C-alpha cells in the first residue's frame, strides 16, 4: 500500500471502526489515500479473563495498563512482523499539545502508531521502552485516548494530497497560514434582517480575495490574538 498507514491500539476497536465510516475520512479510505489497522489490545492478553490492566504498585485508586500486554499488542502489528519500527505515539494529557503543525508533520510520515491509553494510565516502562512521542489534544482529561485518536486522524487525513478536492484544499484551512478562517455566507441573501456583505455579491474576485484576507486577519486579532504573536 502506498501512502500513510496508521495503526491504532485500543481496547475499544469498535469506536475507531465506526469513526472511520464517515465523511472525508471514509472517502479517503475508499480512495486508498491512506490505510488504518485497528488492533484490539485485549487480543494480546494471555489469561482466560483477558486481563489488560492491574492495580498500581504502591497502592492507589484505579488500574494501570500492563506493559507486557501493550508490548505484545504493538508487536502484533504488521510493521513489526516486517521488521520495521514505525513512529509510536501515545495519546495522553501529558503529551505535547496537538496543533496544525503537528498534524502537518504526521501527514508527511509513511506510518505511525496511535496507542490509546485507558484508565489511570499505562505502565511507565512501556512508555520508556516503546513510545517515541506523547501527544495531548488539550488540557483536559478524557477517559481514554480514542476520542483523541479521532481528532488526530481527522486532522492528519485532510492534509494528505488528493484527499480534499481542488476546491476545498486544506492549504486554505484556518491555521494553515497561522490565521483563523474568514466568515462565510450562503443563500438566502437576507436572513432575519441580516444581509450578506455586498462585496461577496459584486463578482469582483480580486476585491473578494482582499476582503477575505482582511476579515481573516481581523478575526484572528479579535478572537485569537495569541496566534499573531
Ligand atoms: N487521553 C486522556 N486525555 C487525553 C488528552 N487530553 N489528550 C490525548 N489523550 C488523552
Name the descriptors.
alpha/beta; five-stranded parallel β-sheet; three-stranded mixed β-sheet; elongated; binds adenine
Helix and strand composition category: alpha/beta
Largest sheet: 5 strands, parallel
Strand content: 15-25%
Number of helices: 8
Overall geometry comes to elongated
Radius of gyration: 22 Å
3D architecture notes:
Helices cover 32% and strands 20% of the residues. It is elongated and about 70 Å long. Helix 5 (100-107) packs across helix 7. The chain is α/β, with parallel strands linked by helices and 229 residues long. Strand 5, helix 5 and strand 6 (111-116) form a beta-alpha-beta unit. Adenine (ADE) binds at residues 91-93, 117, 136-138, 140-142, 145, 148.
Amino acid at each position: 500500500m502506498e501512502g500513510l498507514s496508521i495503526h491504532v491500539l485500543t481496547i475499544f476497536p469498535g469506536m475507531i471502526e465506526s469513526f472511520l465510516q464517515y465523511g472525508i475520512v471514509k472517502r479517503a479510505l475508499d480512495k486508498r489515500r491512506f490505510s488504518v489497522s485497528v488492533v484490539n489490545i485485549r487480543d494480546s492478553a494471555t489469561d482466560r479473563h483477558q486481563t489488560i490492566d492491574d492495580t498500581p504498585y504502591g497502592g492507589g485508586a484505579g488500574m494501570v495498563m500492563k506493559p507486557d500486554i501493550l508490548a505484545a499488542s504493538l508487536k502484533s502489528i504488521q510493521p513489526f512482523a516486517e521488521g520495521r519500527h514505525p513512529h509510536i505515539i501515545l495519546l495522553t494529557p501529558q503529551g505535547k499539545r496537538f496543533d496544525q503543525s503537528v498534524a502537518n508533520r504526521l501527514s508527511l510520515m509513511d506510518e505511525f502508531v496511535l496507542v490509546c491509553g485507558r484508565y489511570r494510565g499505562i505502565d511507565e516502562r512501556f512508555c520508556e521502552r516503546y513510545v517515541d512521542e506523547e501527544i495531548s489534544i488539550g488540557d483536559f482529561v478524557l477517559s481514554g485516548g480514542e476520542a483523541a485518536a479521532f481528532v488526530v486522524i481527522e486532522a492528519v487525513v485532510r492534509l494528505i494530497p488528493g484527499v480534499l478536492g481542488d476546491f476545498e484544499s486544506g492549504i486554505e484551512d484556518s491555521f494553515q497560514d497561522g490565521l483563523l478562517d474568514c466568515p462565510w455566507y450562503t443563500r438566502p441573501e437576507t436572513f432575519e434582517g441580516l444581509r450578506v456583505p455586498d462585496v461577496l455579491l459584486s463578482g469582483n474576485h480580486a476585491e473578494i480575495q482582499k476582503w477575505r484576507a482582511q476579515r481573516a486577519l481581523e478575526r484572528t486579532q479579535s478572537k485569537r490574538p495569541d496566534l499573531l504573536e
